[in-house]
Amino acid sequence: MNGWTPDDIPAQHGRTAVVTGANSGLGFVTARELARRGARVVLACRDETRGRAAEELLRHEVPEADVRLAPLDLADLKSVRAFADALPEERLDLLVNNAGVMALPRRRTVDGFEMQFGTNHLGHFALTGLLLPRLRAAGDGARVVTVSSGLHLLGTVDPRDVQMDGGYRRWIAYGRSKSANLLFVHELARRLAAAGSPLVAAAAHPGYAATNLQTAGVRMEDRRWAEQLVRGANRVVAQSAEAGALPILRAATAPDVRQDDFFGPRVLMWRGAPVRSPRAPWTRDDRASAGLWAMSERLTGVSYGWPPRV
């Protein structure tokens, strides 16, 4: 048995999805396969030029696709609000929080947050909160899927120093931001379950998938030798973006997905068919998730109001 494949994706006709970071890699594959199954897909992309190229490629690969491009910069809360305000759909069946940055040299978002925490977690926290009324309007089958990483095992959020002002280490910052993704999903799932909502919050990770995410940080510093090393590793040991997107697609579409599920590759959380994945115990800590939620509302200025705190 080969496990779950794209052939297992149920028909998506009549459903609308937003996929962040849909211009390349995991986001592009996710958007394409959802469109192939009949979903209307909004490609939420920071770079308009790359977004247009992705839209054209997707239409070439899926001629019948119902897709459109919309600008979204998760490192700018003004852009996040503008995206949500401009979204014409009154209901939204699926939000895939996929976009992210990895192991960058120290940078700040437009709003002054450490870039990895600000983009990977706070931007998506704000986006989900602003789109929540549309997700609620969709009723049964609506989902929020947030993409984390197996590298969340590098550490959890330190509430005393979320900006890592006490000492910045790029990989620890990345791991903490990915733990923040899982804590967010855990808290959202708890609140939804307590409210009896049909909206499901789940997470996924791609294992080690070859995308441009791995090379962005070293390219920013013009470390060409390191970039070539990463590209070589991607060719030799990584699985493809096509395979890496499968856990995301399963979390987004499979009928057996439960609140707070976490999907990843079967083999050592590295590669293979998507299955329910192990996760660090701290990502299921109710106190930590509630604390991060309150902090995130304060930092972003986005107050959910619903679902109620439990």
Automatic annotation (TrEMBL):
Keyword Oxidoreductase appears in the UniProt entry: yes
Species of the source: Streptomyces luteireticuli
Annotated Pfam families: adh_short
Keyword Hydrolase: no
InterPro entries, sorted: NAD(P)-bd_dom_sf, SDR_fam
Keyword terms, alphabetized: Oxidoreductase
NCBIfam families named in the record: PRK06197.1
UniProt name for this protein: Oxidoreductase
Signal peptide: none
SUPFAM superfamilies named among the record's database cross-references: NAD(P)-binding Rossmann-fold domains
Domain of life, source organism: Bacteria
